[in-house]
DNA polymerase III subunit chi
Amino acid sequence: MARVTFYVVNSAAPAALLNAVCHLIAQQFNQRRRIVIFSQDQAQAEAVDELLWQIPAERFIPHNLLGEGPVAGTPVLIGWDQPTAELSKQRNVVFNLRHEVPELTRHIQEIIDFVPADETGKELARERYRHYRQLGMQLATLPAPE
């Protein structure tokens, strides 16, 4: 059964969510996890990609946008409008930046989701939380790293 952790982002600044995402990606990467990021759209996927490139070389995280290299070739894969179940194969951690719950394969161990600061985003996160609970997943909520 997958564990779902919601990280609550307290700042409405657009960079706050993406900075938290990159911080958590680094934590998961350091634990040798294979990660797929489901972005809301291509612009968000490219923003995550750009932030990961800005990490200092000694802490580099190998990653690619879907279609820019072999799908299984890097520990971190960033996608946006592709079928989610197919992308989650060979990955054990999902970062969900979408408004809806992604379709997943059974072997996913952990889902990392986010509660944004705006009211619309909070309501969408509540809906995802209820959906995950109906699926019988273990749920936790933590403050997002800054």
